[in-house]
Amino acid sequence: MGTFLTSVSSVVVIVLIMALGYLLRKFGWFNDSFAGNISNLITKIALPASIFVSVQKHLTRSSLGSLGEGLLFPALGVIIGYLIAYLVVKVMKVRPGRRGILMNAIVNANTIFIGMPLNNALFGSKAMPYFLIYYLINTVSTWAFGIFLIYNDDPTVDKSKKQKRKLNWQKLLPMPLVGFVVAIIWLLLGLPNSQPSFLFQTLSYVGNLVTPLSLIYIGIVLCDAGLNNFKFDRDSVVALLGRFVLSPIILILLIKFGASALHFDLPRLMQQTLIVQSATPMLAVLPILADEAHGDVKYATNVVVMSTVLFIVVVPVLMGILQFI
Known about the structure:
Blueprint: H1 2-26, H2 34-58, H3 64-91, H4 99-107, H5 111-123, H6 128-151, H7 169-172, H8 175-188, H9 197-207, H10 210-225, H11 234-261, H12 268-277, H13 286-292, H14 297-322
Helix pairs in contact: 1-5, 1-10, 1-14, 2-8, 2-9, 2-10, 3-4, 3-6, 3-11, 4-6, 4-11, 5-6, 5-10, 5-12, 6-12, 11-12, 11-14, 13-14
Keywords: Cell membrane, Membrane, Transmembrane, Transmembrane helix, Transport
Family: Belongs to the auxin efflux carrier (TC 2.A.69) family.
GO biological process, one term: transmembrane transport
């Protein structure tokens, strides 16, 4: 019961900060470019700094092995998720322009703008290395495969003509991931992680901007999207069930039975972090990707907004369930 109440309290804090961003945007404090500016500050500066400092604080060379073991389960979860999502799209005969969106909605999560603040609120900075496992898998899944599902579902393209799309390495290697790689190299080389102290203190202060700014950003996005535009059609409900029910169930089963079968001793905090991340809302960039591929932008916006609002209910329930796993 204590864990459930703690998760409720943590989610309330998150909601209040999101509400602040929502209200400030609604009352005209932020102009149209402000959300984009915050997004760049978070993803290109604050988050890499936060990741670098967290790795130095909470990881050692000897503990890197457990992270490698942890990578296996979310990676398998993503593969299984794509297979099930593909079957769902085929069986339900989802129309072109929605197929790639639906599969991404089920498999890929909003790890940066909601996943990380949520993780910090629930588990603290000590869980950051475990969050990075899911973030790594989610990033590769989104930009190495998920984006192709959306582009290949473009209803305006002649399917008989083959089109080659190159990997966008800038998307596949975003600054947060670069920050993680630099931090691991720093750690492996045994470079000092506390000197000069002013440098690490600066990075810590900048990194601490991630949580509040991310939530304010989500509040702005919700305000711009409009909370009164919910539409619970069949495809939206399927996407929500896939994101909040199917995805965590797959990971729970993989961790519960796979870890014991492979004799992996995964820390409980790692297990909880991975499972919670698997149930975070859908990618905030889905509407943008849908627009680029001439897909159903309204549908993409609808599922992103609904999942961002509904996670408020999902997370406390999931945390309650995790007590019995």
